[in-house]
Design brief:
By secondary structure, this protein is mainly alpha-helical. 73% of the residues lie in helices and 0% in strands. Helix 18 packs antiparallel against helix 19. The chain is globular, with a radius of gyration of 23 Å. The protein starts with 6 loop residues before the first helix and ends with a helix. The C terminus is likely disordered.
Amino acid sequence: MAHDEPLYKSLIRDTTAYFAFVLLVTVLGPFQFGYHLSELNAPQDVITCKKVNSQSSALDGLPQCIPMNTTQFSVVTSIYTLGGLIGALGAGPSCNRYGRLFTMRITTVSFVLGSIIETFATNIGVLCLGRLVSGLGCGATIVVVPIYIAEVAPPKEKGLFGTFTQISICLGILIAQLLGYFLSKGNLWRIILAVSGALGLLQLAGLFLVPESPRWLAEHRSPQNARRILHRLRGHIADIDAEVKAWDIDATEDDISEEESLLSAAPGSHPAPTPKAASASINLWQAVKHPEYQPAIIAVVAIMSTQQLTGINSIVMYSVSLLSSLLPTTASLLIVAVSALNLVATIVFAPLSDKIGRKPCILISIAGMGTCAVLLALGLLFGIKILAAIATLVFVASFAFGLGPVPFMLANELVGPEAVGATQSCALAANWIATFLVSQFFPIVDKALGGQGKVYFIFAGFAAVLGSFIAYWVPETKGKSGVEEVWGKREARERID
C-alpha cells in the first residue's frame, strides 16, 4: 500500500533536481538566521578587546577591536532580535500581498547591507546598526521560507522538508562557530561578519532562477502559470491534479484572461488575488481578534516562546564565555562539537515528525531540555566538568529532536491558507521577543545569581510550565486532512458562523 512505502523510495520519486535546487537556494535564508545568531559567540573576547593581539595592526583604518563591557555586548547581541521582530511582523503582509519570492529577494538585500555595516564597524553604534539591519532580513526570512517550502514541497514529505528550515539554521550556527574557532584573533573576526554578505549575494542571484509559489500564483489569478511551475517542480510526467484540487481554488475564464494580460505587464507587477482569496485573506490584526484563529495563534505563540525560553540560545550566543571558567582550554572546541551535534541530530530526527507526530516530538524535546538544564546547572555549580559537557550535548540533541524543527511547520497546519502569513508573523514575533529576552538578560541574570550556571534552573522551570501548557492546548496535526479535523470539536465551539 502507498502509506507503507519506505521514505527513501518516495523521496527518490518525488524529489526532482529542480526542486532540490529551489530548496537549496531558499534555505540559505534560514542559514543566515542561524549564522547571525552565533557569529559573535566565539570572537566575543576579541571583538570586545578582552584579548588583544599586540602583533596585529589596524586594518585600513579599522580598529582591531571595539571596547565593550558585558552590558554593551548584550545590547549589540540582542539588537539583532529587534530587527528580527520588525522583519517578522512585516513579512506576513508582504508575502501575502507581493508574493513569497519578492519577499525572499528583499531579505537578501538586508543580509548584504547588514553584513557590510557590521564588517566595517568602528564603534558600538555602527555595529548595532549592522546587527539591526541583518536582523530585519532574518526576521522576514524565517517567516516566509517555511511558508514557501510548505507550498512547494511534495505533500507526502511536507513534514520532512519542513525540517530543512531548522537544518539550515543549525548549519549556519555550525559554520559561524567553526569560523569563529579559527578566526577569533586580531582583525580576522571581521571576515566572520563579511561571509554573510557574500552568501546574501549568492542567494540573491539564485532567487532569480527560483519560481514563485504555485499556490500563491493560483490564489492570485495565475492558475495556468501555477500548474506549469508545479509540473516543473514535480516532474513533467507527475500527476498534479490531486495536489491542485487540494488548493480548493477555482480558476475562471476571467482569471485566465487576466493572467494572459499580466504576462505582458511591466516587470514588478503583482497579480491581484482572486475574489475568493481576497475575501478570505486575513491580516495580522484580524487574525488576532477573530475567535476562529485565536486558538491557533495561542498555540504557535506558546510553542515559539518555549523554543527560546527553554534556553537554547544561551548555548548558541554565550556558551563560550559561560563554559570558559570550567573548561578554559576546550570551551570553543566543545561548542563547535555541540553545533555539529545539533546539525547531525536535526538531520537524523527529521523524519520523526511524520512518523510519531508533531506533538510527541515537541513534548519529548521539552522534557529532555528541562532535565538537561538542571544537570547543566548542577555541573557548573559544583564544577563537575564531565556532567556539564554531557548535559550541554544532550540539551542540544533534545532541542533537535522536536523543539527545533517542528514549530516552523505548525502555522501552516493549524490555520487555513488565508491566515498562514498572519499566524506565522505572530509566531515569529513571539519567537523574536523571547530571543531578545534571552540574549539581552541571560548574561545579566547569570551574573546577578553569582554565575555558576544557576540561571539554568530558571530555564528548567520554563520547560516544566510551558511544556504542561502545550500538552494541554496544542493539537496533533500529523495525518489530519484539514484545519477542521485538527481542531475538531474545539474549533467548532470557537468558530463564528
